[in-house]
Write a structure and sequence with these properties.
32% helix; 296 residues; seven-stranded mixed sheet
Length: 296
């Protein structure tokens, strides 16, 4: 029986992202070979959840692979699987190549999550660690993940919730009305998005992580090194003046506890199965045959 019709999508917060700015930020992070917290901790938690499902995939897609940490871990876990590391940033994938040597070889593909260059039904497992927040169109990205999965394939992902960087958001709000922090997707809206994409049996849960910094500059530096700079399409262009930097720094001071400034990262973990296959009707689709990806 087909799933009930999902409600129409709300306006996606990530639809306001500047795709070119996202690519620039992650290219800069690649130059720094970043693997900043909390991404590492979230990745390890996400990968640990694979054991709950008892799967033995033949083809695994690491979506938003960055510099290849998750792809290498997936290759170690599934020794007989073909692992594909896909990322928007060729610079990130160039660093991932260092982790793709024998016996942990994995394929590296540069591509957009909203237009995956993979054949329909070619993957048994899709893992996406903190990739969805940087997708310009999350609904389309989820639909693409559904398309490339086998009929009972598994999607496992983490993303950032609405409380992420709330201290920074509220501090900037006292200074001006320009967006300085991304609008992240609510967990309940994510559940609806999974249903719209055709996924079955979705399970979502929420965890909060708090990091502490000596200064606001130290927080900004970590975000920059992680490729998580402000890429909002409506962000103010040009340099931020010293007065506004001083004002937001002062506003953030009200959060200081025991000598440190907190930064909240709200993480949504989600798992869902592809469900029954649906008719393929994607115009203008760019397809790379699986045989080509598996060639050595």
């Amino acid at each position: 029986m087909p799933p009930p019709e999902a409600p129409p999508p709300p306006e996606s917060p990530s639809a306001s992202l500047d795709r070119a700015a996202v690519a620039r930020h992650f290219a800069r992070a690649a130059a720094l070979a970043a693997d900043a917290e909390p991404a590492r901790e979230v990745r390890e938690e996400l990968l640990s959840r694979i054991g709950f499902f008892g799967i033995d995939p033949k083809v695994v897609l690491d979506l938003g692979a960055g510099t290849g940490q998750a792809a290498a871990a997936l290759r170690r876990r599934f020794r007989r699987a073909h692992v594909v590391a896909l990322d928007l940033s060729p610079a990130m994938l160039a660093i991932a190549a260092r982790r793709a040597r024998w016996p942990r070889r994995f394929t590296r593909v540069a591509g957009d999550a909203c237009a995956l260059p993979l054949r329909q039904g070619s993957c048994d497992l899709v893992v996406a660690n903190l990739a969805l927040p940087w997708c310009v169109d999350p609904d389309r990205a989820l639909a693409e993940m559904r398309r490339v999965l086998t009929p009972r394939g598994l999607l496992l992902f983490s993303t950032l919730g609405t409380a992420t960087l709330r201290e920074l958001r509220e501090s900037w709000a006292t200074v001006d009305r320009s967006p300085h922090v991304h609008d992240f997707i609510d967990m309940h809206d994510l559940g609806s998005a999974l249903a719209r994409a055709g996924f079955a049996e979705p399970v979502l849960d929420l965890e909060q992580y708090t990091r502490h910094f000596d200064t606001l500059r130290a927080l900004a530096s970590q975000l920059k090194h992680a490729g998580a700079g402000n890429a909002h399409a409506a962000r103010a262009r040009g340099l931020t003046g010293r007065k506004r930097i001083a004002a937001v720094t002062q506003a953030y001071e009200r959060w200081r506890r025991e000598g440190l400034l907190p930064a909240t990262f709200e993480v949504v973990y989600a798992a869902a199965f592809a469900g029954e296959p649906r008719a393929r009707a994607t115009a203008g689709e760019f397809v790379v045959p699986l045989e080509r990806l598996l060639s050595r």
